[in-house]
Amino acid sequence: MLLVRSPFAQDVVTVEPGDDLQAAVDRVAAGGELRLGAGQYRIAEPTRITTPGITLKALPPASARLVASNDFSGGPLVHVSVPNVTISGITFDGQFIRNVRGVRGVRNKDNPEDGAIGLVVENCELTRLTRHAVDIDGHRSIVRGTRIHKILWNEHGERRDAHGVVTTFAKGLRIENVDISQCSGDAFQAERGSWDDLRITDSHLWDSPLEEDMAGFSKGTYVSENAIDTKHRYSDRGHIAIVNCRIHGFRSKLINNTSALNLKENVDAVIDSCDVYNSQIGFRLRGRGKGMSMFPLLMNCVVRNNGIAFRLENKLRKFRMFHCTMFQNRSALAWGPSRKTWSRSYYDWDPSQWSNVNNLWIGVRKLPEIASSSRLGAVNNVRLTREAVADDLSPRHGGSAVETPPVVESWYEPTGRVLKDKAGRKRKKPSTVGAYEAVN
Which of 90, 253, 319, 362 has the fewest CB atoms within 10 Å, counting from its CB? Predict the structure, then answer.
C-alpha cells in the first residue's frame, strides 16, 4: 500500500468534547495518535478510520465516552477499514438506540485478507449497544482488557442476536482478559465463515438477571443464548482454543437449550482449564451438522452446578476428555437428536475415537456411561465423595492415573500431554485424576 502523507497531517492530534471528531481523525498522520480529552463525544454517524496505523486513545484512560446521539444514523460508532489501528481506553455507549441497523461499537469488516488487519481494541468499555459490540474480521487482531456488557436487541417484543464479539472471517484473532456479560445473543460467536486459529484466554463470560427493565427486556431476565457459539461453513476446518476462562450463568428461558458452550459444525475446539458452571447446559457438543463434524477436546476443566453437564448430539465423533472434574450437576449426560429423532442411546453412534481418561466425578451414586463404558473410551475415571476432596475440589489423597492416549494430540498442544493441572502446577507421575493434583 502506497501511503501519501497529507501536508496537513499531524503525528499527534488532540480533540475535546464538542470538536468535530471525524475531522480530527482525518488530520492524524499514518502511524500517529489521536488523543481524546475527558468527556462525552456525541456521535451522529459512524466515525470512519481510513488512515492506517493510527491510535485513538483516551487521556486519561477511560475518561472519553463516545455516545450515540438520539439521531444516530445506525451502524458502528467507529468503523475501521485500514490496517494496524489501535483503540485504547475509550467507552462506547449506544444508549440502547434502536433503528434499522442498530448501534454497534467497533466494526472492521472490509477486506480481511489485506485490509483492516491487526486491529487492537484494548482497555475499553462497550455498553448499551443494540447490535454486536465488536464485529471483527481483520486477521491477527486483538481484543484485550475490555469490558462488554448490556448488549441488547429486542425487536417487536422478541429477543434478537446481539453478540459481545463476533467474527466470520478472522484468522489469528486473540481475545484476552475480557469480561463479557448480558448479551442478547452470545458473548462470543464464530459465525458461519472461514475463520481460523481463534483463542479466548483468561476471560470471564457470563449472564445474570437484568438489574432493571431495559431495552425492551424485563427486570430479572436472563437474556443470553450461549457464552460461545461456533459455526463454520467452508470445507477447511476452523480451530478455536478456550483457555483458563470462567463461564457461567447461561440459563435463559427465551430460547431452548441455553448452553455455556454450544460447539458445532466444521470445528476443532479445545477447552483447557476452564470453570463452567451454573448454566442450563454446560457443554452442548453437536457432532454432525450442515454435513460437517465438530471435534471437541476438554482437559483440566471443572464442570459444576449445571442442569446438564454434557449434552452430546448428532452422532458426535472424537469426543476426548482428560483430567476434568464434575461436581453437583443435576444430570451428567443427555443424548441428543439423531436423524431427526430423539436418541437416548449411543448404540447407533460410532464412538471409536472417543477417549475419556483420568476424570473425577464427585458425589455421584455411580459413574455415568461416558465415564464407565469402555466402548466410549473410558479409562480410569474415578468417583469420590465430597468429603474426599478439598474445597478447591482437589483430592485429599493421591491416586493412580494412566497415560493420556495418543488420540489427545491436537493442533493446540502438539505434545498431546496434559502436563499441568488447572492451577498451573506441573503434574506428578503418575498424575492424580481430575483437574487438580492431590492435596499434599
Answer: 253
Please give the single-letter amino acid code of residue 299.
Answer: M
* Rg of the Cα atoms in the chain: 23
- State the CB neighbour count (10 A cutoff) for residue 296: 25
The sign one gets for the Cα dihedral 424, 430, 431, 437 is negative
Q: Which of 349, 398, 400 is nearest to 375 (CA)?
A: 349
Q: Do the beta carbons of residue 35 and residue 16 sit within 8 Å?
A: no
User: Is beta strand 292-293 parallel, antiparallel or unpaired with respect to 288-289?
Assistant: antiparallel
Confidence grade of residue 17 (pLDDT, cut at 50, 70, 90): very high
Q: Which residues contact 211 (CB under 8 A, 6 or more apart)?
A: 219
- Say how far apart CA 251 and CA 236 lie, in whole Å: 32
- Tell me which residue of 319, 206, 407, 417 sits closest to 310, measured CA to CA: 319
Query: What pLDDT sits at residue 405?
Result: 65
Q: Evaluate the omega torsion of the peptide bond into residue 209 and state whether it is cis, within 30 degrees of 0.
A: no
- Cβ proximity of 78 and 116 under 8 Å: no
**Distance from the first to the final alpha carbon of the chain:** 60
Least confident of 137-146, 268-277, 386-395, 416-425: 416-425
The pTM for the full model equals 0.94
- Measure the CA–CA gap between 348 and 8, rounded to whole angstroms: 70
- Between the alpha carbon of residue 112 and those of residues 83, 141, 291, the distances in Å are 9, 10, 26
**CB neighbours of 84 closer than 8 A, spacing ≥ 6?**
52, 53, 117, 118, 119
Residue 395 has pLDDT above 90, yes or no: yes
Among 61, 128, 52, 127, which residue's Cα sits nearest to residue 89?
61
Classify 39 in phi/psi space as left (phi over 0), alpha (psi -120 to 50) or beta: left
Q: How far is Cα 82 from Cα 92, in angstroms, rounded to an integer? A: 20
Contacts of 373 (CB under 8 A, 6+ apart): none
Cell of 298: 476438554
pLDDT band at 315 (very low <50, low <70, confident <90, very high): confident
Mean pLDDT, rounded, of the chain: 90
Place of cell 502511524: 31
Give the single-character DSSP code of 82: S
